[in-house]
Amino acid sequence: MQNQDVIVLERLKQWRDQAEHAVLVTVMRTWGSSPRPIGSIMAMSQTGAVVGSVSGGCIEDDLIREFTGNTSQNQTPTPMTGQPRRMRYGISADEAHRFGLPCGGTLELLLEFNPDAQILDDLLQRLKAGKLVRRVTDLQTGEVTLEDTDTADSLRVSETALINTFGPAYRMLLIGAGQLGEYIATMAIFNGFSVTVCDPRQEYASGWTTTGVERMNDWPDDAVRLFKPDRRTCVLALTHDPKLDDLALLEALETEAFYIGAIGSRANNAARRQRMIEHFEQTEQSLARLRGPIGVYIGSKTPAEIAVSVMAEVLAVKNAVPLPPEVNVAHAKSVKEQ
């Protein structure tokens, strides 16, 4: 599965390439609880087709009724033309309930009518090249400009512009093509990650069945260098084989990858750290970003359960959610043994 924003933008571009009227809808502000975060986008065509989401569905239905018409009530649709328009939902408790918003929730949307197909194509090409792109919309004229950026800023709204930063898909590099890797890859794909698996062991690589995953058969440390992890990349070592895992992890630690970790018991992970310190001139400080045992503690036993645990930790780190010590695998198991 692609990055959700890319899916929305690609579908929107298809509609505009076909000269269909369409609208890009962005969650620009929220008050209280809201179903979707600021910066979320959806697109709707003149036929009422929708991709993406700004709520649990009720607001989408209201937008469809307004801009495509309600034939049962002989409603004349609002034209999908003109300058950007703001719409606010959930101002009153009754309205919040009607649109399925959480208690006290209010959100404000920006509607951009008929975005330029060429600018959409430019944005998509930059994203596919791995760039972060700042999209600036003039709130009066609807004019859009694109700027490459190194900072993944949250959406900002000024008196004159809406500024939303789009990024390429998050990437995951798995070292090891075993059963656990297949479960993790499947979950990562459904969470919008682009997944690559590396395993030079033919007996493992030949048994891989998960589709939608890039394959590498290089030695893992070479694979990490070729993969060029960045701030939107996580690297997971899953083979239990020091010859494969250790050098790949050392290479990953030289990058900006947001998550670097290895499967294994507490004893195995302690031994790995000791090897790296003794033989590869590492220190406790240089290994501070190395996670292991990976995952959050849920008492997992099977490969599928372990994959859930690992994916939960990856997503928490990606979303900058601090995890309490109680869910750390090593800490929880140590407490359990006391």
What do you see in this structure?
The protein has 338 residues and is an alpha/beta fold. It folds into two domains: 4-166, no CATH class; 171-337, Rossmann fold (3-Layer(aba) Sandwich), CATH 3.40.50.720. It has eleven helices and 15 strands. The chain has helices spanning 4-17, 58-68, 93-98, 117-128, 179-190, 202-205, 220-227, 242-252, 266-279, 303-318, 329-337, and strands at 22-31, 41-45, 50-52, 85-89, 106-113, 132-138, 144-149, 156-157, 161-166, 171-175, 194-198, 214-216, 233-237, 259-262, 290-291. It has a six-stranded parallel beta sheet, with helices on both faces. Helix 5 (179-190) packs across helix 10 and helix 7 (220-227) runs parallel beside helix 8. It is elongated. The chain starts with a helix and ends with a helix. The model has no long low-confidence stretch (mean pLDDT 90).
Helix and strand arrangement:
Blueprint: H1 4-17, E1 22-31, E2 41-45, E3 50-52, H2 58-68, E4 85-89, H3 93-98, E5 106-113, H4 117-128, E6 132-138, E7 144-149, E8 156-157, E9 161-166, E10 171-175, H5 179-190, E11 194-198, H6 202-205, E12 214-216, H7 220-227, E13 233-237, H8 242-252, E14 259-262, H9 266-279, E15 290-291, H10 303-318, H11 329-337
The CATH class of the largest domain: Alpha Beta
CATH fold descriptor of the largest domain? Rossmann fold
Number of E-state strands: 15
Largest pleated sheet: 6 strands, parallel
Q: What is the architecture of the largest domain at the second tier of CATH? A: 3-Layer(aba) Sandwich
Radius of gyration: 23 Å
- How many individual helices? 11
Span between termini: 43 Å
Task: Give the class from helix and strand content and strand pairing.
Answer: alpha/beta
Domain count: the total is 2
What general form does the structure show?
A: elongated
Which range does the strand content fall in?
Answer: 15-25%
In spatial order, strands of the major sheet run: 12-11-10-13-14-15
Helix content: 25-40%
Low-confidence stretches: none
Average predicted local confidence, pLDDT: 90
Helix and strand string, N-terminal first? HEEEHEHEHEEEEEHEHEHEHEHEHH
